[in-house]
Amino acid sequence: MHTKRFFKVLALLAIVAVIGLAVFTILAPDVFASNGNQNIRKLREIEVAEDGTRFVSDEAPVFDEDGFPAYGAAFVTQGYIYPAGTITCVNNDCNGVNPDGSPEFPDLVMGEWTCWGYHVGDGAHTLTGPIVVTNQLFSFGEEFGDVMLTTTGYELADFDTSFRRAITGGTGPFAKARGEMVQTVLGFDGDPFGVSLGFELDVK
């Protein structure tokens, strides 16, 4: 397999935002503790760095030649939510996660991102267009379930290409949320392999 395609496919295996970075308003972590949930409701931009050590895919269906997930294979993965502008990418090679899976910038972590879904198109061999259909859960703060935002939709294999996802609800200040989120795959972190995603949030 061509080297460039090989690394791109490995990065896509870690999808999900972008499997990339997400786009919300830049808020320091102490905002959640000092000013309550109302400030979280004003989020507009965030970034997500996937922890590739937590990407798990079904054993089947897979491609015979390389074992990569094929059409219909389910997966789950998780990562770290950062304020926009935290992650740096050079030629789609991004930072944000240490080799052991811990966050590279622990003091800036705003919450946990969880993504699960199914491969579509040509599975992990997809080079352009929809590669997975997913649900994404953005959990903010230290208490699981208190402040969450959920989205659903396609994710594209293409880097630096924006696409829309539906905001389906949440908890706390997002309990009645609707609208759309724009996601962009910014690149990937090579060690461990994980996607870096960017998101723009328009909550109604």
Concise overview:
With 204 residues, the chain is mainly beta.
Q: How is this structure best described in words?
A:
By secondary structure, the chain is mainly beta. It has a single domain, classed as AOC barrel-like (Beta Barrel). Helices cover 10% and strands 44% of the residues. The protein contains 3 helices and 10 strands; from the N terminus they run H-H-H-E-E-E-E-E-E-E-E-E-E. The protein has helices at 3-13, 30-34, 37-40; strands spanning 45-57, 74-83, 89-90, 93-94, 111-119, 130-140, 147-156, 162-170, 179-190, 193-203. It has an 8-stranded antiparallel beta barrel with strand order 1-2-5-6-7-8-9-10. A hairpin with an 8-residue loop joins strand 8 (162-170) and strand 9.
Describe how the helices and strands are arranged.
Blueprint: H1 3-13, H2 30-34, H3 37-40, E1 45-57, E2 74-83, E3 89-90, E4 93-94, E5 111-119, E6 130-140, E7 147-156, E8 162-170, E9 179-190, E10 193-203
Antiparallel strand pairs: 1-2, 1-10, 2-5, 3-4, 5-6, 6-7, 7-8, 8-9, 9-10
